TrEMBL record:
Keywords: Glycosidase, Hydrolase, Secreted, Signal. GO terms for molecular function: alpha-L-arabinofuranosidase activity. The lineage of its organism: Eukaryota, Fungi, Dikarya, Basidiomycota, Agaricomycotina. It comes from the Eukaryota. It catalyses: Hydrolysis of terminal non-reducing alpha-L-arabinofuranoside residues in alpha-L-arabinosides. Its EC number is 3.2.1.55. This is Alpha-L-arabinofuranosidase. It comes from Coprinopsis marcescibilis (Agaric fungus). Alpha-L-arabinofuranosidase involved in the hydrolysis of xylan, a major structural heterogeneous polysaccharide found in plant biomass representing the second most abundant polysaccharide in the biosphere, after cellulose. The keyword Hydrolase applies. GO terms for cellular component: extracellular region.
Length: 346
């Protein structure tokens, strides 16, 4: 099936479950023990405008009320990071729509990056989670209103001591919220081999988070680096974490568990047996435009805080860049694209 036609068939399934009031689908199926993917070309890049951005990266996305709502980091070689919002009804138009820069909202200017978007159903409120040196968030009653975001608040008052004790030369970043029936859990990374988790009762969210615990760690910091995602499927949980390979390229490892708290069992977690890496991704037309499968998000089957996915049709929005790109990290030309799973067991 041609790449664009395959995308449309998969996204038709997502559209059927994109309403807040709809029950999330839980098909009786399972994830495979290995993965293969097909990537299209870059779909979203910085606008040619006065911002002179080097990159768009770290996408988070939901489908709601007939449209895609995508949030991402903007990167400038000298001005650093902030956030951008795009909305579109078809991926064919994703590269040409208006970019709404969220430093124009109450989120404000300064360092904000790595967003996560979800609808917190108990409060009927949208949450945008991001890093600003701490675990930041903003709320909005209308995901489609880029000017409706509140001023920044934080889940933790300051960096917890356990992170100070382990972070070394890393950074506390890439915050990720997922809730079950009892608790909301906040995951984060330190670029130094630790994945952390703190939690609070659903009824107390967004307040009341306890001190984090180490959810997972690796003596090799590059194998458990950053960009954690956690999703629910068929009553189980899928954990993804970005690693930096022996070839210095970005890729994703995966684990599964019956509980958000773990323990986590490796699913596809090695360079030659990965969740997503350049060596298990084919590229449309044979044009391998990137060797990095980096920070992104799976397309969800709903929009709420349970972060449910349909394991039958996995699509991952990711960031990649030209293989020959060099320079300071903030100046690297990251672009957004999609990979679709080609070996579903459903």
């Amino acid at each position: 099936m041609p790449y664009q036609h395959r995308l449309r068939s998969i996204f038709d399934l997502v559209r059927k479950s994109g309403d807040i009031q709809a029950e999330s689908t839980t098909p009786t199926s399972r994830l495979p023990s290995h993965f293969t993917w097909l990537s299209g070309p870059p779909l979203i890049a910085p606008k040619n405008d006065s911002r002179n951005l080097a990159a768009l990266k770290d996408p988070s996305i939901v489908f709601y009320e007939g449209a895609w709502h995508l949030f991402a980091s903007t990167a400038h070689a000298t001005n650093g990071y902030n956030l951008v919002y795009l909305t579109f009804t078809s991926w064919d138009e994703a590269g040409s729509v208006e970019h709404h820069y969220l430093d124009q909202s109450a989120i404000g200017t300064g360092y904000r990056a790595a967003p996560q978007i979800f609808y917190f159903a108990p409060q009927k409120l949208w949450y945008l989670v991001f890093q600003d040196g701490n675990a930041g968030y903003s709320t909005n009653p209308d995901v489609a209103d880029p000017n409706g975001w509140s001023a920044v608040k934080h889940f933790h008052v300051d960096m917890p001591q356990i992170i100070r004790d382990h972070i070394g030369n890393g950074y506390w970043l890439d915050f990720w919220v997922i809730c079950d029936e009892v608790h909301c859990h906040l995951f984060s990374s330190d670029d130094n081999g630790q994945l952390y988790r703190s939690w609070t009762p659903v009824g107390s969210f967004p307040e009341g988070f306890n001190d984090p615990v180490i959810a997972m760690q690796d003596a090799d910091r590059w194998r458990l680096f950053e960009a954690c995602n956690v999703y629910r499927y068929d009553g189980r949980y899928l954990l993804l974490v970005e690693a930096i390979g022996t070839d210095e390229r970005r890729w994703f490892r995966s684990w599964t568990s019956d509980r958000i708290e773990g323990p986590w069992e490796a699913l596809a977690a090695e360079e030659d047996h990965s969740f997503a890496r350049a060596n298990n991704v084919e590229f449309e037309g044979g044009v391998r435009w990137t060797e990095d499968i980096s920070h992104g998000e799976l397309i969800r089957s709903g929009v709420d805080e349970k972060l449910e996915i349909n394991p039958c049709d996995l699509v991952y929005v990711y960031q990649g860049m030209r293989p020959d790109a060099t320079g300071e990290y903030n100046s690297l030309p990251w672009r957004l694209a999609l990979i679709t799973q080609t070996n579903s067991e459903c």
